Design the sequence.
């Protein structure tokens, strides 16, 4: 059984609360707000950690909270609170009104909330299918046992986390929606050691809205993958630094697009003036082999949403088509401040953050080449099989770590190398992605930005970058 | 409910559920923050937060835990019930107990608690700061990342054996990151962060000046040749490096096998004998100081490296028991208790005769790379392996001139770095994460575009 389960909360959840939500929104409009939005959430989360052959941590948590945002012109005030009583929500509206220094009377019209749109209807029946702590513990212990393949593996960890979130969103444009979201993620980590040599291996798997996914997870295959990665890297030499062509593997290799370009296509970057692509709509910003997509609904993918955190159904956005910039990723504030239409991309970690334009499932579309075509085209370069985290700065410079890399010599993979970091600038690297493979795959991840940490998917087929700076020793 | 009432409520609910042993940590905060964009308010935020973490011990003395933001009577009961369920999965191989120091006196220094100045004043101060920063140089076109915030919070720890301690304080933070552009050059960005007990304590002028100087100084940049260089770490960047590899001093990491140190590393020589490193959470310059940790253990000054050798590890209650020592005041409160440093203080020891004291970043005319700020720590540090490969902001000093480095990474091994310290400058600087002098290291790899 679950350690706890979300249950309807008679104070604010369910259709009986429409009157209360309307009363609060009307209160804000009457005081002079142009727009009022209420986001309420109820969460039930659990995490489990297995180390070696024991469960060492089980951490359930639950909570409730509300975030209320008010717009006046192009500025917004946001108040979050754990007090979900009528008094607490009214007080939050008053505080936001006061912060924005709104002194005029009602100008906007509020015609009440639309008919309730409940995206959770089909999901309520599967809540009980979410695996129990006991079931999770047993499978995690099986997975850490599978990692015990030789005595060079000195640490073995398996971790699981489950986030169950019930939300309700109501706003003065009539939006009135609710949803239940389920995210599950499981990761395996090892450290291998032999005398002075050390390496680590890790893989993470995740799904959205699929309670049975953890049961279907092939932990033996995952453990083999992590083990092989750590063994391959154990005696690897450090990579020599320099400029070189690289082939980036599919799945999590997509972090290059996420960091190097995806963030720069969020309207928050236009608002700040920190993207080089601001005035490049319908211009060529990438090699013609590159088509990039950000979509809200990909079956089971970690970044999928039925509805975004501003109550809009997420659209499939073709960001770049054959190298031409076609669209930005936009939220409500982004539309208001930059003019780019909302794309159902308003996302936040929880009620304590205001929504912002964020990526969802973002990937480079598949091309026509095989992985071997890409590697064969390089005489000396680097194959990046597994990527670590990365970041992009205020001027578009990005970097990310290569966890598992191999040298390419004369069109063949040769020795493993470690310590590589890829660095560059988005507008310089995008035209250098010259070949895309035919093996598109997606991978789950967490993206931290202005509205907190959100679940995302990155993805791509194998891609070739003609030249990039590889940091090493 | 206030913290005394919560303690009573938990005690009553625990009795009802026949839970004899429990403890909890709680935090209650009110935060206010503003952001501006070209003189206009962009986003104004306020939040009230409450977080309660309850641990219970079952009849087999196994520990279960639950965290919640619902501190209503029903929320507390639910949290206790959940923690009790979780205790069935408690770690049978490593027990957790109350800290033996949870009732010891704590060192309450002068708590500089301020009254809120309010959103309107925060907005006025930040608007003025943005204008001044943009006006400080014609190339500075915007301040894309900015914020001024103030927080008021209370932290509590209590347990079923009568320990109860709480403290409340205030804190304010200002950050300004400017973006500069010049024709035919790539845009450059840099910034500054300042903390204070309240908004009125923050040195706004110095934050503006620092953000402006840092940004402008990088406008004329060049790429750097990939090679090995003599390096000077700024106090901030050296502290970033020590914090990134603090698992070397972390007993939890040692037990878990993810540290470069082991149980026998006390006394191991890590660096030049000229280096001392302390963790000093109660240091008077530490605005974020807390008088006790998540388990109620008092915070204290602890020597980590004494004349180049490891002197102490940081501990929670359970790791201290395993190492046959006492907790050091560095624990969190979790199902598996984490341990982390508070405020690192780097000093030059008296054993400093081998240092090349001619290496002073303000006067040295030979070639070296000055690392001002390290970036992307989460991506570029392999703490369990000791390696790092990190982008940085900095300069190449050559023939008495300094040239901003366009884009580069520094890579190496932390043990190599510490053993190759060739000078520790005399003057210490206070940063937002600790105190350190400038530190010189010989022969680290820099990757550039040239």
Sequence:
């Amino acid at each position: 059984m679950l350690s706890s389960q979300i249950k309807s909360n008679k104070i604010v959840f369910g259709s009986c609360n429409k009157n209360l939500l309307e009363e609060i929104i009307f209160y804000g409009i009457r005081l002079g707000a142009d727009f009022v939005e209420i986001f309420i959430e109820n969460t039930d989360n659990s995490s489990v950690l297995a180390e070696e052959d024991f469960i060492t941590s089980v951490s359930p948590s639950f909570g409730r909270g509300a975030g209320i945002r008010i717009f006046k012109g192009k500025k917004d005030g946001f108040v979050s609170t754990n007090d979900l009583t009528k008094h607490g929500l009214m007080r939050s509206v008053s505080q936001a009104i006061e912060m924005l220094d709104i002194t005029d009377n009602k100008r906007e019209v509020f015609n009440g909330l639309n008919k309730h749109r409940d995206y959770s209807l089909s999901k309520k029946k599967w809540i009980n299918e979410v695996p129990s702590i006991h079931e999770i513990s047993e499978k995690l212990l099986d997975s850490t046992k599978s990692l015990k393949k030789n005595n060079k593996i000195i640490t073995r960890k398996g971790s699981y986390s489950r986030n169950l979130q019930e939300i309700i969103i109501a706003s003065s444009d009539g939006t009135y929606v609710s949803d239940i979201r389920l995210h599950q993620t499981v990761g395996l980590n090892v450290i291998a050691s032999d005398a002075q040599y050390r390496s680590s291996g890790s893989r993470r798997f995740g799904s959205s809205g699929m309670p049975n996914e953890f049961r279907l997870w092939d932990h033996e295959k995952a453990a083999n993958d992590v083990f092989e990665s750590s063994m391959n890297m154990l005696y690897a030499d450090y990579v020599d630094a320099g400029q070189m062509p690289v082939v980036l593997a599919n799945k999590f290799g997509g972090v290059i697009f996420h960091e190097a370009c995806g963030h720069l296509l969020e309207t928050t970057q236009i608002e700040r003036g920190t993207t080089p692509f601001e005035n490049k709509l319908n211009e060529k910003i990438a090699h013609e082999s590159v088509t990039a997509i950000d979509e809200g609904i990909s079956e089971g993918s970690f970044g999928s949403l039925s509805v975004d955190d501003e109550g809009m159904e997420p659209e499939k956005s073709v960001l770049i088509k054959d190298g031409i910039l076609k669209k930005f990723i936009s939220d409500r504030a982004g539309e208001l401040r930059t003019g780019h239409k909302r794309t159902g991309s308003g996302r936040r970690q929880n009620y304590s953050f205001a929504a912002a334009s964020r990526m969802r499932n973002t990937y480079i579309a598949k091309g026509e080449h095989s992985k071997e075509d890409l590697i064969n085209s390089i005489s000396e370069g680097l194959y990046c099989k597994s990527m670590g985290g990365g970041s992009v700065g205020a001027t578009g410079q990005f970097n990310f770590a290569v966890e598992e890399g191999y040298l390419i010599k004369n069109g063949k993979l040769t020795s493993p190398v470690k310590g590589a970091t890829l660095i560059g600038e988005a507008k310089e690297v995008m035209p250098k992605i010259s070949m895309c493979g035919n093996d598109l795959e997606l991978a789950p991840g967490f993206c931290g930005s202005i509205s907190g940490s959100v679940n995302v998917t990155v993805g791509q087929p194998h891609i070739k970058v003609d030249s990039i700076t590889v940091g090493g020793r | 409910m206030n913290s005394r009432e919560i303690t009573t409520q938990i005690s009553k609910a625990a009795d009802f559920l026949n839970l004899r042993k429990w403890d909890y940590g709680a935090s209650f905060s009110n935060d206010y923050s503003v952001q501006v964009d070209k003189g206009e308010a962009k986003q104004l935020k306020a939040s009230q937060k409450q977080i309660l973490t309850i641990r219970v011990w079952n009849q087999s003395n196994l520990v279960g835990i639950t965290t919640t933001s619902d501190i209503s009577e029903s929320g507390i009961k639910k949290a206790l019930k959940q923690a009790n369920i979780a205790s069935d999965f408690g770690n049978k191989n490593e027990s957790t107990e109350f800290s033996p120091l949870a009732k010891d006196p704590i060192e309450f220094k002068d708590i500089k608690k301020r009254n809120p100045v309010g959103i309107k004043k925060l907005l006025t101060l930040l608007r003025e700061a943005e204008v001044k920063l943009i006006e400080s140089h014609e190339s500075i076109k915007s301040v894309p990342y900015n914020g001024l915030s103030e927080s008021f919070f209370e932290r509590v720890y209590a347990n079923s054996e009568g320990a109860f301690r709480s403290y409340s304080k205030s804190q304010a933070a200002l950050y300004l990151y400017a973006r500069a552009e010049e024709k035919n050059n790539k845009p450059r960005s840099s910034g500054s962060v300042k903390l204070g007990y309240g908004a009125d304590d923050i040195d706004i002028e110095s934050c503006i000046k620092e953000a402006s100087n840092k940004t402008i100084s990088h406008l004329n940049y060049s790429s750097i040749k990939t090679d090995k260089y003599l390096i000077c770490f700024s106090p901030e960047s050296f502290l970033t490096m020590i914090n990134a590899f603090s698992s070397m001093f972390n007993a939890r990491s040692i037990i878990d096998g993810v540290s470069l140190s082991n149980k026998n590393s006390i006394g191991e020589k890590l660096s030049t004998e000229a280096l001392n490193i302390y963790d000093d959470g109660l240091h008077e310059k530490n605005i974020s100081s807390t008088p006790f940790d998540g388990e109620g253990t008092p915070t204290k000054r602890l020597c980590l490296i004494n004349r180049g050798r490891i002197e102490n590890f940081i501990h929670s209650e359970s790791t201290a028991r395993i190492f046959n020592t006492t907790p050091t005041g560095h624990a969190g409160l979790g199902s598996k208790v984490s341990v982390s440093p508070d405020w690192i203080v780097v000093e030059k020891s008296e054993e400093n005769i081998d240092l090349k004291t001619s290496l002073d970043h303000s006067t040295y005319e030979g070639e070296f790379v000055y690392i001002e700020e390290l970036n992307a720590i989460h991506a570029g540090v392999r703490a369990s392996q000791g390696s790092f490969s990190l982008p940085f902001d900095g300069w190449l000093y050559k023939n008495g001139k300094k040239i901003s480095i366009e884009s580069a990474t520094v890579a190496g091994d932390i043990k190599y770095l510490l053993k190759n310290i060739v000078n520790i400058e005399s003057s210490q600087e206070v940063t937002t994460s600790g105190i350190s002098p400038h530190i010189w290291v010989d022969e680290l790899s820099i990757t550039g575009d040239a």
